[in-house]
Each structure stands twice: as structure tokens, then as C-alpha cells.
Design a protein that fits this description.
- It is a single chain.
- By secondary structure, this protein is of the alpha+beta class.
- It has two domains: about 190 residues, no CATH class; about 110 residues, Homeodomain-like (Arc Repressor Mutant, subunit A, Orthogonal Bundle), CATH 1.10.10.
- It is about 45% helix and about 20% strand.
- Strands 1-2-5-4-3-6 form a six-stranded antiparallel beta sheet, with helices on both faces.
């Protein structure tokens, strides 16, 4: 089962997910400018995850020239078309395109400290957002977040425009600035990795949290208690709960429930399984309990997704 976070890790290494075919790639690596890499993949396996973003703040006090801020996003649901005239197509956005290839789209935007200096020069640093842009925040961190509609709209616009040449460069760079602005909101509304849970400074602790997430995904139909999960990753229950919320921005229960319901939607809609079968596959003791949880999460009754 491929997950958005896994794809974002692949983006960090600059590689290509082996179970996905690269359909399209566009890069910009102009020194002193915004550097970006956009890749569109055809996923050979079902995608069961919501759109995801990651902010990476790299800080090294001894080598300030190496400092950078990176935004990574993974989105799904668009369709790929090889026609060069697709940008003028009346079926935009591409989600309504009649093409057959649904894509997983991966974006990486890289900002050097030199580039970001233009926004903080002669500016009084009054909040955490300013500190990060000026690379005055003393601790490196990464932040995982789900995508709001306005971020998704910006990403879709970057994929689906009709500009070329210099105008394309102006348009894309303007959209990337907009994306940077929206993404920095998370530094005010939410807490980043490393800001509060001091034990997460230990790499082994962070690895244990990520391992716990993988174990949860492996047990979609076989629910685990927090105690059982903490034993599997050899971490104190309290640390596990706090660390999970710090890194992934959600509680263990909410994350697990969300993943179960997303998988349920896939089983009901794509595989046309019965409500009874899906309820049993996800480990629910009764159909009524499953139906109530599904409606709470999606706003729909399970039967409404059956074809």
C-alpha cells in the first residue's frame, strides 16, 4: 500500500517510486531562484491516502550557506493527457478530463536562505514565521500536514495553465510564492517537529513514531490498542501519543480511523464489496458500528458509495 508520506520521502531522495511509472517531469534549477521539481506518476496500485504536504526546515548554524526551506506535496485525482493543447481544454480542471490515466503528482519546491533573505531584509522578526524565513529559528524540523483547498487549487493551477516561455516562468513563480505564504500558516496554527517534544531530538525516537504509523497501516483490519502499539515500537505510551501528534499533526486514533475510512471508500466504490464484507475486513464487531463511523467521517452512508 503506497502512502503519500512514502512518496514525499522518495522526493527527498530524488528517486522514483519503483511501483510507479513516471509520465511527466518538469524542473527548474536556476541559481538564486526558486528551484522546483514536478513529477506526474501513474500508480499501478490503489492509492489510499489524502493529499499531503511536508515542510522541511534545514538549519546548520556552522554552515549558514547550506540552510534551506523545502515544500513537498503529493496530490491525487488529476488525469494525465499528452496533448500539448490540453491547457486550453474546456474540461479543465483535469479531474473532469476524459483521459484514462489518473495520476499521483509530486511537487518539490526548494528555497535557499539567500533567496528568502529578500523577504526578511530590514524587517523586525515578530513571529515564528519570520524567524523561519530569516533562518533565525535555531532547530531544524520537518512538518507533515494535509492540504487545504486553497493549496490544492494553487497546485492544480501550476499543472493546468496555458502559459509558455517567460510568461510561464512569471506565472509559476507567482503561484509558488502564494503556496509558500499559505504553507507558512502552519507555523502559527500548529506546532512543528522538535518545538515541544524534546525527546524527538533523538533519531531513534522519531524512527519509532514512524514505525508506529507503518504498523497501524499494516493493521487496518486488525485494530491495535495503544498499549500493544507501544510495545511493538518499544516506546512509553505517553511519549508515543505525544510524539505521534507532534510529527503527524493528529492523534493516533484519528489517524487510524481516517485511514480505515479511506480504505473503506475504496473497497465500497472501486471494488464494489458489500457493506457487510467491508465491515468485517476492517475489524468492526457490527455493521451498525461501521456505518456510524463511516457516516461520521465521510458524511455519507456506506450504501451510498455502492455502484
Amino acid at each position: 500500500m503506497i502512502q503519500a508520506l512514502d512518496i514525499l520521502k522518495v522526493a527527498q531522495r530524488g528517486g522514483i517510486e519503483p511501483s510507479m511509472d513516471l509520465l511527466y517531469q518538469k524542473q527548474q534549477k536556476i541559481p538564486g531562484s526558486i528551484q522546483y521539481d514536478i513529477r506526474r506518476y501513474y500508480a499501478q496500485h490503489p492509492w489510499i491516502a489524502e493529499d499531503t504536504g511536508m515542510m522541511v526546515y534545514h538549519y546548520n548554524a556552522k554552515r549558514p550557506s547550506d540552510n534551506y526551506l523545502e515544500l513537498r506535496y503529493c496530490t491525487t485525482g488529476n488525469r494525465y493527457c499528452e496533448e500539448k493543447s490540453c491547457a486550453q481544454c474546456k474540461q479543465l480542471p483535469t479531474d473532469s478530463c476524459s483521459g484514462k490515466i489518473r495520476t499521483v503528482d509530486v511537487f518539490t519546491f526548494h528555497f535557499t536562505s539567500t533567496f528568502l533573505h529578500q523577504f526578511t531584509h530590514n524587517v523586525k522578526l515578530s513571529n515564528r514565521k519570520d524567524e523561519v524565513l530569516a533562518f533565525k529559528h535555531p532547530n531544524a524540523f520537518s512538518k507533515i500536514f494535509t492540504l487545504s483547498l486553497k493549496k490544492r487549487n494553487v497546485l492544480d493551477a501550476i499543472l493546468n495553465h496555458s502559459y509558455s516561455g517567460a510568461l510561464e516562468n512569471i506565472f509559476v513563480n507567482a503561484k509558488v510564492h502564494e503556496l509558500l505564504l499559505y504553507s507558512l500558516d502552519h507555523l502559527i496554527d500548529e506546532k512543528e517537529e522538535g518545538f515541544t517534544c524534546k525527546f524527538l531530538a533523538d533519531e531513534r525516537s522519531k524512527e519509532s513514531i514512524h514505525q508506529a504509523r507503518e504498523i497501524l497501516l499494516q493493521h487496518i483490519g486488525d485494530p491495535l490498542t495503544i498499549k500493544e502499539l507501544s510495545r511493538k515500537v518499544a516506546m512509553n505510551e505517553c511519549y508515543l501519543k505525544k510524539g505521534f501528534k507532534e510529527i503527524f499533526g493528529t492523534t493516533i486514533f484519528d489517524f487510524y480511523q481516517q485511514q480505515r475510512m479511506e480504505h473503506a471508500k475504496y473497497l465500497l466504490y472501486e471494488k464494489s464489496l458489500s457493506v457487510t464484507d467491508v465491515s468485517a475486513m476492517l475489524g468492526y464487531s457490527s455493521i451498525s458500528h461501521f456505518s456510524a463511523a463511516f457516516k461520521k467521517h465521510t458524511g455519507l452512508k456506506p450504501c451510498e458509495l455502492l455502484k
